[in-house]
Structures
1.
Amino acid sequence: MDTTATVPALGPIATEMHARLDAALSPTALTLIDESAHHAGHAGHDGRGESHFALEIESAAFAGKNRVARQRLVYAALGELMQERVHALTIRARAPGE
């Protein structure tokens, strides 16, 4: 699936996040926004950027799952990026038709 139309020019961490989410969840819609600049001076902002993100994702993988199970799928797809690079991730996950 080509979701590049919903993705603005992203840095390497966001690009890797996008690729992992595509591979693991085959989303029908995916919007990933780097909100790091809004958090300058706050915890988790180390000056490198790409530390705070907002994600909206639609995938059939979320059908029949509650919010926590959906978030776990996203975290599993992102793997070590969540421990090593991403400080905060706001997730809005839905199944098609929701």
2.
Amino acid sequence: MTLRRIGAETLLTPPAPPRDTVIMLGLTGYAIQVGEHDARLVRLHEDGKTILTEVDAKTTETFAYHLYDAIGGTR
């Protein structure tokens, strides 16, 4: 195991925020774009994308818990 010295500047500099994750829904032309604090359902097309709906963080978290329970997960 190799030890590496980390300077104070490295410790005090916060990491870059995570980028949005896009989850394609098969070949339907729709996707879910998940950000750090929200999610949105988008329709993809040749000119870009159209946001169909936005979901706040609390609703996204509730949905994730219900989905996890539905597939037989445990908390």
3.
Amino acid sequence: MRQVSDFKKLLDGYRLVTAEILYRMPDHPKLLQSYIWQDFDMAPKYPVLGKFLDFWNRELDGPIHSVTVGTRRVIHPSEFVRADFVATIH
């Protein structure tokens, strides 16, 4: 399978998503531990984050307490300008 470049993902509407996952320690369930996850994902459904959380619930022992998601478009349409002319001067 061909990997899509990060730049292509940004142009397709992906955003850089950061999630703070609070989970309970398996041996000490009253204690919470924090894990920071970051990847490119599509708002508002966040399928990449959803797959990661499914993996977490299936494979890891620490039950998730809460997930806080922060996101921002990395490239805005007003910030992306196509160049009509490129020249090199020596």
